[in-house]
Design goal:
single chain; alpha/beta; Rossmann fold; five-stranded parallel sheet; binds adenosine-5'-triphosphate; binds magnesium ion; Putative ABC transporter ATP-binding protein YxlF
């Protein structure tokens, strides 16, 4: 359902994505790994329709991003590497705010349910009182409001404690299976990647990840 074909992306003279291609289908959890600066976030932004490749094309369900990015955007959930939530609003107010922007309407109990699914129970706490890991969880809950069929997560477990990380990993696996969601996510924690992902895609030229994750690259 996802096809990335020969994508190139440069910033100035620096080529970050060099003829990058991959395919993926619904129900898969794919780990995107590579060293710092390899281009993982750049690729996720392109897949989230928030940035355009210089050349090459991305297709979702056979329809190109170039022509159909507005329709695709409605089906995509994206958690950026830099947390993007309103600091002066409470957890629940953030959910309500983003729910208003969503093409899929959600009731208040449904919004609370999304928070409870990932064990974020401080619904009436202002975001600026939350820890970094809790903010990340909130960002994840926000990305699920539109019932995405394609979920892109840029380091969703960075700074999150071990117990919550395991819970989020389990949650993502279950979601891929139950909702037939395609999930692509980045992490620098290789044991987590091995535990959560069906398969790994390495980005960049460095052979280090290809060697240590050889069994997971299918
Ligand atoms: N908006 C931008 N303008 C200029 N250069 C950029 C921009 N965004 C990213 N880069 C550069 O592109 C390269 C890839 O960055 P990217 O954020 O995609 O890497 P990454 O694999 O996500 O790294 P990390 O593991 O540190 O998150 C880096 O050299 C970065 O400095
Ligand atoms: Mg990154």
């Amino acid at each position: 359902m996802l096809e990335v074909k020969s994508v190139n992306k440069s910033y100035g003279r620096r080529r970050v994505l060099d003829d990058f291609s991959m395919t993926a289908k619904r129900g898969e959890v794919i780990g995107l790994v590579g060293e710092n600066g390899a281009g993982k976030s750049t690729l996720l932004k392109i897949l989230a329709t928030l940035s355009k490749p210089d050349s090459g094309e991305v297709y979702l369900n056979g329809k190109s991003y170039r022509k159909h990015f507005k329709a695709h955007r409605k089906r995509i959930g994206y958690v950026p590497q830099d947390i993007a939530v309103w600091e002066d609003l409470t957890v629940l107010e953030n959910m309500k705010f983003f729910a208003r922007l969503s093409p899929v309407k959600k009731t208040l109990p449904e919004l609370k349910g999304l928070l409870n699914n990932i064990q974020l129970d401080r619904h009436d706490t202002k975001v600026n009182k939350l820890s970094g890991g809790m903010k990340r969880k909130l960002n994840l809950a926000i990305s699920l409001i539109n019932d995405p069929e394609f979920l892109l997560l840029d380091e969703p477990t960075a700074g999150i404690d071990l117990k919550s990380r395991i819970e989020i990993g389990e949650f993502l696996k279950t979601m891929a299976v139950n909702n037939d969601t395609l999930i692509i996510y980045t992490s620098h924690d290789m044991s987590e990647i091995k535990e959560v992902c069906d398969r790994v895609v390495v980005i960049g030229q460095d052979s280090f990840y290809r060697e240590i994750l050889a069994d997971y690259i299918k």
